[in-house]
Task: inverse folding
């Protein structure tokens, strides 16, 4: 009588197969910057139906080229980001003139003080 032989061939574990390959962080970031990502949210704080605080958050993440395609390029004309675009205001001119006057007064004060001390003070006494 012959004994049956059992094959002990290695079997592969059966798992879930995915149709897409995994993306790295760089791939995800590139996709976000290329297409853009918008995050919007509102935070409201209320007590007894009285709204105390509302914060609206709008966040757009994209590349500079994509933003320009959408018509967003505020950074190129902002006087805060480009000092060449900052106009000289009247208030700045007034402050500069005031500083110049104060500095001139500060320089003149020692001369004025020495002139006052150098002059003799005459006190006349009147008898009645």
Result:
């Amino acid at each position: 009588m012959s004994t049956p032989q059992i094959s002990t061939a290695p079997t592969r574990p059966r798992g879930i197969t995915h149709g897409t390959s995994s993306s790295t962080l760089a791939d995800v970031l590139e996709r976000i910057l290329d297409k853009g990502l918008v995050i919007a949210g509102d935070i409201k704080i209320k007590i007894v139906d009285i709204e105390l605080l509302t914060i609206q958050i709008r966040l757009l993440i994209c590349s500079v080229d994509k933003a320009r395609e959408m018509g967003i390029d505020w950074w190129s004309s902002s006087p805060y980001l480009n000092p060449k675009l900052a106009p000289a205001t009247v208030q700045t001119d007034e402050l500069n003139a005031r500083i110049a006057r104060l500095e001139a007064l500060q320089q003149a004060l020692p001369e004025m003080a020495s002139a006052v001390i150098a002059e003799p003070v005459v006190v006349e006494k009147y008898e009645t």
